[in-house]
Amino acid sequence: MKNLVNIAIIGLGQIGIYLYNELRSKKKEIERKTGKKINIAAISARNRNKKRRFQIQKNIFFKKPIQIFRDKKIDVLFECIGQSDGISKKIVETALKNKIHVITPNKALIAKHGDRLAKLAEKNNVNLEFEASVAGGIPILRTIKEGLATNKIDKVYGILNGTTNYILSEMENSNENFNKVLQKAQQLGYAEPGNPKLDLNGFDAFAKVRILSALSFNTKISKHKCIMQGIENIDLKDIKIAGQLGLRVKLLGISQIINNRLFETVHPCLVSKNTYIGNVNGVMNAVIIEGKPIGESVLQGEGAGPGPTSSSLLSDLLSILRGNIKYPFGLSSKKRKSLKSFNNDNYTNSLYLRFEVNDKQGVLSLITNRLAKYKISVKRIIQTPDKKNKKATIVIITHKTSEKNASNCLTIFRKNKNILRAPTLIRLYN
Ligand SMILES: NC(=O)c1ccc[n+]([C@@H]2O[C@H](COP(=O)([O-])OP(=O)(O)OC[C@H]3O[C@@H](n4cnc5c(N)ncnc54)[C@H](OP(=O)(O)O)[C@@H]3O)[C@@H](O)[C@H]2O)c1
Predict the structure, then answer these.
(1) In the CATH scheme, what architecture does the domain 345-428 have?
(2) Which CATH architecture has domain 4-133?
(3) Could you tell me the residue ranges of all domains in the chain?
């Protein structure tokens, strides 16, 4: 690579504008560490006149990012728009075809098109780097690709979404309900003001699970149908009852190999307050890797926000400037295989089941009899009557049962007039 490196930043939102400022202020340090001078040659966003956190040089601003490929000679392009398709995909493809290195924090794009884009990067002998797409500032992808390169990883899991972890922690701390705490998260900039759905429903964490699986197990990005649940149905009541049982609710992303098959999932879990993962609170993320011979490795840090995300984007840049031309997924695309998926029906957990019922004789036995019919054995029952309204909350902790069994059994309860709503199910982390 030549000594003066031309850079383009596409997207000047929360991440792009912070990165722009970091690149400008760290030019000297980057040169000292890599021997390369950097020059921000082009920037692009939708609105040229929007007020931004840092002032931009308008003479290098492009309203249409595609124009940059015609007018400028770019060496490294940062895609910071964030779409899974559309303009983000077009920009990345065009850059790679033009032998431009690409760096992106866009997990939606990588989880959906990462395999094809990796092939394109390999064909054109340039890098496609996406460290910032998983767990913000935690250098988890590089750790798997390089630091743990010869380990056989069996499982990677953790808290991969800071928004949901903040909401769950804050509900416990403040005793406030989901909607109140979501508003707080939006005011603090931890949740998107307009549409926080993709964080709350588990989609964001799931994209990260797919990327982690591909890197950890040297496989193609899976397209399997998986169990994906978010935290929208977690009630303050569940958090309080869990607390009394010495448990905490956490949204976990899990990827593991079971009997040579790939199992990926995102769902709320009850974890013991005495465990490491049970004490990762607020906006923190944590990723735990289990492998041989390394054993268990834990990485924790801030999982989102412009500062941590830029830290990862810059580490990708320095890797490129130092001349590390690598396969995007650590292994040639030709050598990455697809793995068959583990049958979700056979996923087995102890369950927390909360029933809201009419406080009538026979309702508890109706529930336990139905559970027994499906061979779901009960470990613990907590019944809290609401005498004034003649209602009651019944919480049952079960022994381990399969996903299929649980779902067949629970559907039946929806039809009973004394069971006031579909029971809440939270899996206990094994
Ligand atoms: N925010 C975080 O904490 C975080 C953490 C990790 C990863 N990420 C990832 O980083 C990426 C960017 O996130 P963000 O929070 O910075 O998003 P954002 O604040 O919504 O910014 C998106 C930017 O893209 C620009 N844009 C949209 N359409 C465009 C087009 N057709 N041509 C040129 N520019 C266009 C917007 O322009 P205008 O400004 O003119 O509207 C805006 O500057 C996403 O992939 C996200 O998943 C974000």
Answers:
(1) 2-Layer Sandwich (3.30)
(2) 3-Layer(aba) Sandwich (3.40)
(3) 4-133, 140-302+337-344, 345-428
Angle between helices 363-373 and 403-413 (to 10 degrees): 150
| Cα–Cα dist 231/42, whole Å | 40
Q: How far apart are CA 300 and CA 287, in angstroms?
A: 6
| Token pair in block for residue 419 | 């069971």
- CA distance linking residue 234 with residue 240, whole number of Å: 11
- Which stretch of DSSP H or E encloses residue 54? none
Ligand 1 neighbourhood includes 44 CB (under 6 angstroms): yes
Q: Active site includes 335?
A: no
Annotated catalytic residue within 112, 145, 208, 250: 208
pLDDT digits (tens, 9 = 90+) for 258-300: 999 999 999 999 999 999 999 999 999 999 999 999 999 999 9
Nearest to 30 by CA among 7, 56, 59, 61: 7
Superfamily of domain 140-302+337-344: Dihydrodipicolinate Reductase; domain 2 (3.30.360.10)
Q: Is 30 in the pocket of ligand 1 (CB under 6 A)?
A: no
Put simply, whether the predicted model's pTM sits higher than 0.85 gets the answer yes
